[in-house]
Structures are given as structure tokens and as C-alpha cells.
């Protein structure tokens, strides 16, 4: 049974995975070479704990037990040596993932399992950066991790059935539902989400309606919990564009990014994390300060 998990990357996804891992009873080390990013992640995780207690999602005791199981670390070499499962949650760029997998391969035990939190990229390719393809797969968590119930478990070409079962048990203990699928670019959810989000940008570009009207139509007409622009701003428009570029390369013309989306990213309008995307969140921040 897995007891010790290392999460590499303290961004939005990494910190969320660390949180649900600790709440599930695992000893979790969250690793980031950027000390500022690591401290920001620690603060954000504390906010999630406090909100969970406030709204009755978790008990005070459960939160305290989970806090005790969380460690924050800058040294990946040190952390990897003690891990039974390493979940990589760095940006969706093959060059960065390659650096991480080459490093953890050097220092992790031979028994350690590797997982990549990717929404589109090939777990077979990522596994090739290490030397244990049978123990490597993708765990696709969704944002925000502490609220979204699903983990897509994606098998690479050489992923063993035992590895799939071990990782499925980990996800279930983290409180998640799972689907196990075979590798193909975009998996299930990202292919659909990317198409919907990109088509919404084409609609906006064509003047079909305002972002508010398009989001409202999708939410009320198709029963989506969030509109495509709300979701895009949440996950990051740069992330959405990266995914579309990858899917366009692998699957063809229907995934070509809308020019307006490319313009937003070039302008630095990345969504909630930059204060402005399709919507302007600086207004919300000013209201909170007041």
C-alpha cells in the first residue's frame, strides 16, 4: 500500500493534489525549487483548509491531521529518495516534464511509481524520459482539485495492470471517482472541453454574443456547471491555448486555436491568475479589499 507521495510543482494543480493527498491520509511532500511559489502554495492550501472547516466539508480534526502530513520542500533529490509515488504537476511542456522525470529516475527507488498530471500529453512519451514505463501513467486531475470528483487514469503503451490498480486505489482514497482509459491525445475530457472552449472564442470573435450571454446559454441550455469562458479563465487561457496547439498538431484542423484566444494570451490576459482574461477580476479584488 502506498503511504508516501511526492508532488512535483506547487502551482494550482500541484497544491490541490497535495491537499487531497494529505486529506486522504498520505504523507505528502510538495516540491518546488521556487521558494516563493512554495510559500504561496502553503498559504493557499491553508485557505482551502479554513474554507473546508467553515462550510462543514471537513472537520477541524481532519484538517489538523492533514496539515501534519504535509511537508514543503525545495530539494527534489531529497524528496524523491523517500517516495513510493511521485506525481509530476509541472506546466504542460515536454522539456520541463523531461527534466523532472530524468531527475526523479536518478533518485527514486526502483519500487516507486510515477504519474504525470497532464490533460493532453502522451504518458508513453513522458514515461520514456525515465526507465520504468510499466510503472508510469497519467493521472489527470481537474481544477479545482479539492472540488472536482474525477481523475482520468490514462495507460501508456507499457503501463502494467498492477500499476493501474495501485493508482486507482490512491485516487479513490483521495476521494475521487476514476475512469481508466487508453492513451490517445487529449484523452476524453480535454478533447471535448477544448472544442467547446475554442468554439466559444470563435463565437465571441464573430460577434455572436457577449461572454456573459454565451456562458449563460451554455450553462442553462446544456446544463454545464460553468460556462466555457468562466472555465477558461479558471484553468488559464495560456493552458487552454497550449492544449489546443498540442491537439491541433496531433489531431488536425478542428483543434486550430481561435485567433482571438491567441490575442488574449499575447496580451497577458490569462484569466484569474493574471487578474484579467475574458472577464476582469481586478474589480472583484478591489471589492474584497474594501
From TrEMBL:
Keywords: Oxidoreductase. Pathway: Lipid metabolism; butanoate metabolism. Residues 186-281 form the 3-hydroxyacyl-CoA dehydrogenase C-terminal domain. SUPFAM superfamilies: 6-phosphogluconate dehydrogenase C-terminal domain-like, NAD(P)-binding Rossmann-fold domains. Residues 5-183 form the 3-hydroxyacyl-CoA dehydrogenase NAD binding domain. The keyword Cell cycle does not apply. Gene3D superfamilies: N-(1-d-carboxylethyl)-l-norvaline Dehydrogenase, domain 2, NAD(P)-binding Rossmann-like Domain. InterPro entries: 3-OHacyl-CoA_DH (IPR022694), 3-OHacyl-CoA_DH_NAD-bd (IPR006176), 3HC_DH_C (IPR006108), 6-PGluconate_DH-like_C_sf (IPR008927), 6PGD_dom2 (IPR013328), NAD(P)-bd_dom_sf (IPR036291). The keyword Oxidoreductase applies. Belongs to the 3-hydroxyacyl-CoA dehydrogenase family. This is 3-hydroxyacyl-CoA dehydrogenase. It comes from Sporosarcina highlanderae.
Amino acid at each position: 500500500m502506498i503511504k508516501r507521495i511526492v508532488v512535483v510543482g506547487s502551482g494550482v494543480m500541484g497544491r490541490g493534489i497535495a491537499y487531497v493527498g494529505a486529506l486522504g491520509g498520505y504523507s505528502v511532500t510538495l516540491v518546488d525549487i521556487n521558494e516563493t511559489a512554495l510559500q504561496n502554495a502553503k498559504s493557499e492550501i491553508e485557505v482551502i483548509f479554513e474554507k473546508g472547516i467553515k462550510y462543514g466539508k471537513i472537520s477541524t480534526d481532519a484538517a489538523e491531521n492533514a496539515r501534519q502530513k504535509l511537508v514543503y520542500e525545495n530539494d527534489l533529490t531529497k524528496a524523491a529518495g523517500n517516495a513510493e509515488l511521485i506525481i509530476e504537476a509541472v506546466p504542460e511542456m515536454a522539456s520541463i516534464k523531461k527534466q523532472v522525470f530524468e531527475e526523479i529516475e536518478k533518485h527514486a527507488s526502483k519500487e516507486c511509481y510515477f504519474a504525470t498530471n497532464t490533460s493532453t500529453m502522451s504518458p508513453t512519451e513522458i514515461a520514456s524520459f525515465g526507465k520504468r514505463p510499466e510503472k508510469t501513467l497519467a493521472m489527470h486531475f481537474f481544477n479545482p482539485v479539492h472540488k472536482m470528483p474525477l481523475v482520468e487514469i490514462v495507460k501508456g503503451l507499457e503501463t502494467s495492470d498492477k500499476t493501474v490498480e495501485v493508482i486507482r486505489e490512491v485516487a479513490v482514497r483521495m476521494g475521487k471517482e476514476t475512469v481508466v482509459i487508453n492513451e490517445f491525445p487529449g484523452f476524453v475530457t480535454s478533447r471535448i472541453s477544448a472544442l467547446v472552449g475554442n468554439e466559444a472564442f470563435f463565437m465571441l470573435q464573430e460577434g455572436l454574443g457577449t461572454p456573459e450571454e454565451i456562458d449563460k446559454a451554455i450553462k442553462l441550455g446544456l446544463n454545464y456547471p460553468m460556462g466555457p469562458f468562466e472555465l477558461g479563465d479558471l484553468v488559464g487561457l495560456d493552458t487552454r491555448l497550449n492544449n489546443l496547439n498540442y491537439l491541433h498538431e496531433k489531431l488536425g484542423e478542428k483543434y486550430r486555436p481561435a485567433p482571438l484566444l491567441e490575442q488574449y494570451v499575447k496580451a497577458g490576459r490569462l484569466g484569474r491568475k493574471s487578474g484579467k482574461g475574458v472577464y476582469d477580476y481586478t474589480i472583484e479584488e478591489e471589492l474584497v479589499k474594501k
